[in-house]
Automatic annotation (TrEMBL):
One of its GO terms (cellular component) is apical plasma membrane. It comes from the Eukaryota. GO terms for biological process: inorganic ion transmembrane transport; pantothenate transmembrane transport; sodium ion transport. This is Sodium-dependent multivitamin transporter. InterPro entries: Na/Glc_symporter_sf (IPR038377), Na/solute_symporter (IPR001734), Na/solute_symporter_CS (IPR018212), Sodium:Solute_Symporter_SSF (IPR051163). The chain crosses the membrane at residues 12-33, 53-73, 85-107, 128-153, 159-178, 185-207, 240-258, 279-302, 339-362, 382-401, 413-434, 441-462, 505-526. It comes from Nothobranchius furzeri (Turquoise killifish). Its main location: membrane.
Length: 608
C-alpha cells in the first residue's frame, strides 16, 4: 500500500496509547513500592501465594490471548467462515481437566515451577529437558506476539514498526522487572478490560456503518460465511468439528494444564479452591473473547463482501486487512482508533509480561537455584529481576526473527503451541497417569514427541508454501464451497509423506502428546518399569481408579496396578530416600487454617 493511502492517527489516539503504557508502568510501580516491595522470590515470582480467584482468572485469559487472536481470528473467519468458532467446544474439557486433574496434583505439591513436578516424579534430567522445551516454546511465541500488532499497524497506518516493538518490549520489561507477578496479574486485569472494550467498539461501529444487525446477517448468509458443524473425519482437513473440538482439547490442556505461565497463576492463588474457581471463571471470559473476535470477522465480511480491496492492500495478508477494516471504521471517530491500538497492545503486553515472569521463574528455579542451594533470598530476587529483564531483550531479538517468517499469525502461534507444547503435555500425562513410566522412558518419549512434531511442522511449512492461497480478491471467489474443492484437490494429489505433512495443525498437540506417552511407556517397559514404592507420593493421578469407579472395590484393586498415593500434606509424606540424592528437598508445607478449611475433599484420598 502506498503511504498516501495510509489511515492516520490524531493526537488523541497517541495520547490514549501513551496512557495505556503509563497506566501499566504505574501498576508496576505500585507493586514495587507496596507490600513486601519485591524483596523475596516468593513475592516476585509467586505473588506471595495470596491472590484471589477473580484477578487470577482474568490473568489466565490474558496469557494466551494476544494480538495474534485479535487480528488472526477475524482474518480466519473472514477468509474461511465461522468453522473456527467450534474451538469453543474444546474449552469445556480443556478447562475442566486442568481444574480437576492438573491443579489438584500440582497445587498440593506446593511447587514454584511446574517442571519441579518432573523431578519429583522422574529425575533431574527430565526436569531440565522439560524446562528447556518450555523456554524454547515461550521465546519463539513471544517474538510472534510482540511483532504481530506492530506489523499490522505499520502496514495500514505507517505506525513506526520498530518503534512500536521497542515500546512494547521495553515498557513490559520495566513493569515486569519492578513489580513482579503481582504487577503482571493486575496489569493483565486492566489490559483484558481494555482488550474487550477495543473489540466491542469496532463491532458496534462496524455494525452501525454496515446498516445494522439484520443487514450484516443478510450479507453474511449470502456470502456463505456461517459454517455448520463439519463432521468430516479427514485429519488433514484444517478446521472441522473433530480437529477443533477434539484436537483443540489437547491444545487447551497444553496451555491451561501444564504451561508454566498458567500453572504459576494457579499456584499464586491463596487456596486450591481459589485456583480451581479461577480456572472455571476462565470459561465464560474465553467464550466472550472468542465470540468478539468471530463477530468482528463477520462484520468485516459484511462490510467488504463483493468489493475488491486488493488494490488498497496490495499483496498484504488478510491479517493486515483486519487492521485496514478497523481503521476504515474508526478513522473519523476521535479516540476510537487509539482505543483499538490500546486494545492490540494490551493483548500483546499481557502475554509477553506473563512470558517474562514465567521464564524468569523457571530459569531461576530449575536451572540456577539447584546449583546454588545456599543463595540468599535477596540475591535470588535480584537474579530473578535480571532474568526477567534479559528475557525482555531476547523477546526483542525474536521479534526480529519473526519478521523474517511468513504465514498467517494465528497459524504460526497455533503451530508453536502444538509442536512444542504437545510434547510437554505428553510428559506430564506420562508422569501423572502411568506410575510404571520411568525417567529413561520420559526422556526418550519427549525426544520422540519433539522429533515427530518438528518433522511434521517443518514439513507442513515446506509443503504448503509451494501452494499457498493468495488473498481472495472478493467474497465471491472465497465461498467456503470453492475453498473446499480447491483444498481437496491438493489433498488428493498428495501421497505418502506429503499427506502426513498435511495433518491439520489442530492435531499437533494431541498427536505429539500421544507419541510421548506411547514411546515413554515402551521404553519404560524395556528398561524396567518404575516400582510402585519408588514413585514420590502425590505425583500420580489415579486415572484408572477414577475410570473404573463404578466397579466394586476388589475388582478395581486388581485392575489398577498402583495404590493411589497419599498427598504430601499428610504426616507420613517423607519422600523415598533416593529422591533426596537429587539435591531437592521435598516441599515442606504446612497448610494454613484457611487452606485447611477451604481444602477440597481429596478425591483420591478415600481409597488410601
Ligand atoms: C489459545 C486460544 C486457542 C484459546 O482460545 C486462543 O486464544 C488463540 O487462538 N490464541 C492464539 C494465540 C494468541 O492469541 O497469541
Ligand atoms: Na494477552
Amino acid at each position: 500500500m502506498n503511504p498516501a493511502q495510509y489511515k492516520h492517527f490524531a493526537v488523541v489516539d497517541y495520547v490514549i496509547f501513551a496512557l495505556l503504557l503509563a497506566a501499566s508502568v504505574a501498576i508496576g510501580l505500585y507493586y514495587a513500592l507496596s507490600g513486601g516491595r519485591q524483596r523475596t522470590t516468593q513475592e516476585f515470582l509467586m505473588a506471595d501465594r495470596s491472590m484471589h480467584c477473580l484477578p487470577v482468572s482474568l490473568s489466565l485469559i490474558a496469557s494466551f490471548q494476544s494480538a495474534v487472536a485479535i487480528i488472526g481470528v477475524p482474518a480466519e473467519i473472514y477468509a474461511h467462515g465461522t468453522q473456527y468458532w467450534f474451538i469453543g467446544c474444546a474449552y469445556i474439557l480443556g478447562l475442566l481437566i486442568p481444574a480437576h486433574v492438573f491443579i489438584p496434583v500440582l497445587y498440593r505439591l506446593h511447587l514454584t515451577s511446574a517442571y519441579q513436578y518432573l523431578e519429583l516424579r522422574f529425575s533431574k534430567t527430565v526436569r531440565i529437558c522439560g524446562t528447556l522445551t518450555f523456554i524454547f516454546q515461550m521465546v519463539v511465541y513471544m517474538g510472534v506476539c510482540v511483532y504481530t500488532p506492530a506489523f499490522a499497524l505499520n502496514a495500514v497506518t505507517g505506525f513506526e514498526l520498530w518503534g512500536a516493538v521497542l515500546a512494547t518490549g521495553l515498557v513490559c520489561m520495566l513493569y515486569t522487572t519492578i513489580g513482579g507477578l503481582k504487577a503482571v496479574i493486575w496489569t493483565d486485569v486492566f489490559q483484558t478490560v481494555v482488550m474487550f472494550a477495543g473489540q466491542l467498539a469496532v463491532i458496534v461501529v462496524g455494525v452501525q456503518r454496515t446498516g445494522g444487525v439484520s443487514e450484516v446477517w443478510r450479507k453474511v448468509l449470502e456470502g456463505n460465511r456461517i459454517s455448520g458443524v463439519d463432521l468430516n473425519p479427514d485429519p488433514t482437513e484444517r478446521h472441522t468439528f473433530w480437529t477443533l473440538g477434539v484436537g483443540g482439547v489437547f491444545l487447551m490442556l497444553s496451555l491451561y494444564g501444564v504451561n508454566q505461565a498458567q500453572v504459576q497463576r494457579y499456584l499464586s492463588a491463596r487456596t486450591e479452591r481459589q485456583a480451581v474457581r479461577s480456572c472455571y471463571m476462565v470459561f465464560p471470559s474465553l467464550q466472550l473473547a472468542l465470540a468478539l473476535s468471530c463477530i468482528m470477522g463477520l462484520v468485516m465480511f459484511a462490510r467488504y463482501c463483493g468489493e475488491d480491496r486488493s488494490e488498497q492492500l496490495g499483496s498484504s495478508s488478510t491479517d493486515a486487512m483486519v487492521l485496514y477494516f478497523v481503521m476504515d471504521m474508526l478513522q473519523d471517530l476521535p479516540g476510537l482508533p487509539g482505543l483499538f491500538v490500546a486494545c492490540l497492545f494490551s493483548a500483546a503486553l499481557s502475554t509477553i509480561s506473563s512470558a517474562f515472569n514465567s521464564l524468569a521463574t523457571v530459569t531461576m528455579e530449575d536451572l540456577i537455584k539447584p546449583h546454588f542451594p545456599s543463595m540468599s533470598e535477596s540475591r535470588a530476587t535480584l537474579v530473578s529481576k535480571a532474568l526477567a529483564m534479559s528475557y525482555g531483550l531476547i523477546c526483542l531479538a525474536m521479534a526480529y526473527l519473526t519478521h523474517l517468517m511468513g504465514d498467517s499469525v494465528l497459524q504460526v502461534a497455533l503451530k508453536i503451541f502444538g509442536v512444542v507444547g504437545g510434547p510437554i503435555l505428553g510428559l506430564f500425562c506420562l508422569g501423572m497417569f502411568f506410575p510404571c513410566a520411568n525417567s529413561t522412558g520420559a526422556v526418550a518419549g519427549l525426544g520422540a514427541g519433539l522429533g515427530v512434531a518438528f518433522w511434521i511442522g517443518v514439513g507442513s511449512i515446506v509443503t504448503r508454501s509451494s501452494g499457498s492461497e493468495p488473498l481472495p480478491p472478493s467474497c465471491r471467489v472465497i465461498l467456503a464451497s470453492d475453498n473446499t474443492t480447491a483444498f481437496s484437490n491438493i489433498t488428493s494429489r498428495a501421497s505418502g509423506l506429503k499427506r502426513f505433512y498435511l495433518l491439520s495443525y489442530m492435531w499437533y498437540s494431541g498427536f505429539s502428546c500421544f507419541t510421548v506417552i506411547i514411546t515413554g511407556l515402551i521404553i519404560s517397559f524395556l528398561t524396567g518399569p518404575m516400582k510402585e514404592e519408588d514413585v514420590t507420593p502425590g505425583t500420580i493421578y489415579p486415572l484408572s481408579e477414577k475410570l473404573f469407579c463404578f466397579l466394586p472395590e476388589g475388582m478395581r484393586k486388581k485392575l489398577c496396578c498402583v495404590t493411589p498415593q497419599r498427598p504430601p500434606f499428610s504426616a507420613q509424606s517423607a519422600p523415598p530416600p533416593h529422591k533426596e540424592r537429587n539435591g531437592l528437598s521435598f516441599p515442606q508445607h504446612k497448610p494454613s487454617q484457611e487452606e485447611t478449611d477451604e481444602f477440597l475433599p481429596l478425591e483420591y484420598e478415600t481409597s488410601v
